[in-house]
Specification:
The complex is a heterodimer of chains A (about 120) and B (about 110).
Chain A: E1 3-7, E2 11-12, E3 18-25, E4 35-41, E5 48-53, E6 59-61, E7 69-74, E8 79-84, E9 93-100, E10 115-119
Parallel strand pairs in A: 2-10
Antiparallel strand pairs in A: 1-3, 3-8, 4-5, 4-9, 5-6, 7-8, 9-10
Chain B: E1 4-7, E2 10-12, E3 19-25, E4 33-38, E5 45-49, E6 53-54, E7 62-67, E8 70-75, E9 85-90, E10 102-105
Parallel strand pairs in B: 2-10
Antiparallel strand pairs in B: 1-3, 3-8, 4-5, 4-9, 5-6, 7-8, 9-10
Classes of the chains: A mainly beta (about 120), B mainly beta (about 110).
Chain lengths: ~120, ~110
């Protein structure tokens, strides 16, 4: 069974770059049956998809965030990462990494426990 | 974007009750709709995908239905472990959007 674990700073200053990494265990990130995704949830609010990446490096993003976000994959480390530039208080959220299926089955079966990132000076 | 709404936003229920949560989409996601359960401080758990397919290991008291732009999650007999918030999600079109959630409490 896949396990996902987020890691990264819990506090980021406004206008700086948020960086998170998700480490995958219990399986290979090169598994062709999954995309690797980031989802966030502001405190007390609904979930928001950020984007996802395939092990080949092919990625897609939420158009509302695309200009500020990059998702990358490192197959040698079984990790994928999120970088979000020019953050503001509105980006304060719990950030989850998760799997998506393929061939239209883009529901999320496996999730990390979540990482709270606060944007504040 | 496909906008998702849910009703009710909060639902008060008792053990053994039949509970129905409704999710509406601004455009049809076809059957590309999932339901998740989330408890405070925890990651979501997938319950239903493709509108009506029960994820492995999820109790059969959960069921999903609907088509077009209106979908339902039914809990046939509410159990103590079911008090949580439930979200729907469409995954037909990027961005994959979630509903605002329905909190089920006593």
């Amino acid at each position: 069974q896949l396990q996902l674990q987020e890691s990264g700073p819990g506090l980021v200053k406004p206008s700086e770059t948020l960086s998170l990494t998700c480490t995958v265990s219990g399986g290979s990130i090169s598994n062709p049956n999954y995309y690797w995704a980031w989802v966030r949830q502001p405190p007390g609010k609904e979930l928001e998809s950020i984007g996802a990446i395939y092990y080949t490096g092919s990625a897609f993003y939420n158009p509302s965030l695309k200009s500020r976000v990059t998702i990358s994959v490192d197959t040698s480390k079984n990790q994928f990462s999120l970088k979000m530039r020019s953050v503001s208080a509105a980006d304060t959220s719990v950030y989850y990494c998760a799997t998506l299926g393929t061939s239209g089955n883009y529901h999320s079966l496996y999730w990390g426990q979540g990482s709270l990132v606060t944007v504040s000076s | 974007d496909i906008q998702m709404t849910q009703s009710p936003s909060t639902l008060s229920a008792s053990i053994g009750d039949r509970v129905i949560i409704t999710c509406r989409a601004s455009q049809s996601p076809d059957s590309w709709l999932a339901w998740y359960q989330q408890k405070p401080g925890k990651a979501p758990i997938l319950l239903i995908y493709k509108a009506s397919t029960l994820e492995s290991g999820v109790p059969p008291r959960f069921s999903g239905g609907g088509s077009g732009t209106e979908f339902t999650l039914t809990i046939s007999s509410l159990q103590p472990d079911d008090f949580a918030t439930y979200f729907c999600q469409q995954y037909k079109t990027n961005p994959f959007t979630f509903g605002p959630g329905t909190k089920v409490d006593l």
